[in-house]
Write a structure and sequence with these properties.
By secondary structure, the protein is of the alpha+beta class. The chain folds into four domains: about 130 residues, no CATH class; about 90 residues, no CATH class; about 60 residues, SH3 type barrels, CATH 2.30.30.60; about 80 residues, Alpha-Beta Plaits, CATH 3.30.70. It is built from 15 helices and twelve strands. Helix 8 runs antiparallel to helix 9. It starts with a helix and ends with a helix.
């Protein structure tokens, strides 16, 4: 323990003497002056460039993926100019004197270049958390490389290993795998988004087939990206056979719902029982299918809400699809009148009222039938067809309002409950009009 402590103290003394020698050297202040001068020139040049080119308007004529890249490049003009000036100063100092006398210039140039590269790479990432992770990781690697400590750190990370079957796992291997997976999945997402946009613009494919193709493409690219990342770090895919049993147990105990929803989603897309744009009723939820995802479908209600319904529910439960084979929808209006009217006149008025509605189909005339004689009056059922189930309740309301106005014109009364209160010798009794007539 004493020996280790003495060794550490000796190393600290040597480092302190090196820093002291560096600080007291006139070359240190010359390099510091060059760095400050280059920083001032870079700031002035960057201000002139930003005044000449508006950052928000840069790249408007370029493709969308290139616009953030060019805007970051213009916004980072001072950093680029500073890195260039530091590189030139470093070359001049190396040519005129010893390389060790321009060490600070080399470090400053490398840090500026690393900053510029990291900002350009991060400009293509939309996720804020991922940008932080990439930036911090890249800065750590760049700092270790510039200070000459990257190789010792890599060797230390590779020295600790755990062997599982024929697979040797080290911290270095896991870090490399994570970086490659992030890059592979990012590129896969870009490619799949491009293919998805092409598929959705195809007029020859039905909505269900478009969703199915998009899911197949995404799943295929995801599997390919993972396989490429594993192979790139030297992991033999056959070495992962030991984890297949664990994955099967995990699916059996905890992932059965996820797998069931995924398989149910594939079944729904293949049998075309529902598709984007259909108007459906599932339990108490009604609306139009706006999207079909791997785990659920999104049903947009007319009041701004969206119901996320698991795919398994659509396979196992009763689903009403208003637009499965035909978008034409039958609207039914039930009403009643008193006994002092002509039922045939009532049916004629109801049919004429429904036919006058703008959304009623002309090739399918309305129909009105007498359904029941009750104590309260005569019951009728009016039916008519509309071309689309959207706004069915509004159409029904319009017809009922028009029917009410027609009844008022023809002096047709709609029955309503009547109560009579009679007092017999101090006893109170309540009777309906029908009871009193008996």
């Amino acid at each position: 323990m004493d020996l280790d402590l003495n060794t550490i103290l000796d190393d600290l003394r040597m480092a302190a003497r090196s820093v002291g020698a560096e600080v007291t050297s006139p070359w240190f202040y010359l390099q510091l002056g060059l760095i400050l001068t280059a920083a001032g020139l870079a700031f002035a040049t960057g201000a002139a460039i930003r005044a000449r080119f508006k950052v928000d308007a840069v790249g408007l004529g370029l493709p969308v993926p290139l616009r953030p890249f060019l805007r970051v490049l213009v916004g980072s003009a001072p950093t680029a100019v500073f890195a260039l000036l530091m590189g030139i100063a470093r070359l001049v100092m190396v040519d005129l004197t010893w390389p060790s006398r321009s060490y600070l210039l080399s470090v400053a140039a490398k840090f500026a270049l690393a900053w510029l590269i990291i900002r350009l790479v991060a400009s293509g990432i939309r996720n804020a958390f991922l940008v932080r992770v990439v930036s911090i990781s890249a800065w750590l690697v760049a700092a270790l490389s510039i200070l000459g400590k990257l190789d010792p750190v890599v060797e230390a990370l590779d020295s600790v290993a755990i062997t599982l079957g024929g697979l040797r796992l080290t911290p270095l291997l896991l870090i490399e795998l994570a970086v490659l997976l992030v890059i592979a999945l990012w590129r896969t997402n870009l490619v799949s988004n491009f293919i998805e946009s092409r598929i959705e613009r195809s007029a020859d494919l039905t909505p269900s087939l478009q969703v199915l193709l998009v899911k197949m493409v995404r799943m295929g690219l995801l599997i390919f990206a993972i396989a490429v990342a594993l192979s790139a770090v030297g992991i033999n895919l056959s070495a992962l056979a030991i984890f297949s049993g664990a994955a099967g147990v995990g699916i059996g105990f905890g992932l059965q719902k996820i797998v069931a929803n995924f398989i149910s989603g594939i079944i729904l897309l293949v049998d075309k029982s529902v598709k984007p744009g259909d108007l459906v009723t599932i339990g108490d939820n009604s609306g139009r299918i706006s999207a079909m995802k791997t785990r659920y479908i999104s049903v947009a209600a007319g009041d701004g809400r969206e119901f996320l319904i698991p795919n398994e529910d659509l396979v196992t439960q009763k689903v009403t699809n208003w637009t499965y084979t035909d978008r034409n929808t039958l609207v039914k209006v039930n009403f009643a009148t008193s006994y002092d009217v002509n039922p045939r006149l009532v049916c004629k008025l109801a049919i004429e009222t429904a036919a006058e509605n703008s959304r009623a189909l002309k090739n399918k005339p309305p129909n009105c039938i007498l359904t029941e004689f009750t104590e309260a009056g005569i019951r009728f059922s009016l039916t008519f067809w509309i071309a689309d189930p959207d706004g069915m309740d509004n159409v029904k309301s319009d017809v009922m309002l028009s029917l009410w106005e027609a009844f008022k014109r023809e002096d047709i009364h709609v029955p309503y409950p009547v109560r009579e209160i009679r007092i017999h010798g101090g006893a109170l009794s309540v009777e309906t009009a029908a009871d009193a007539a008996k």
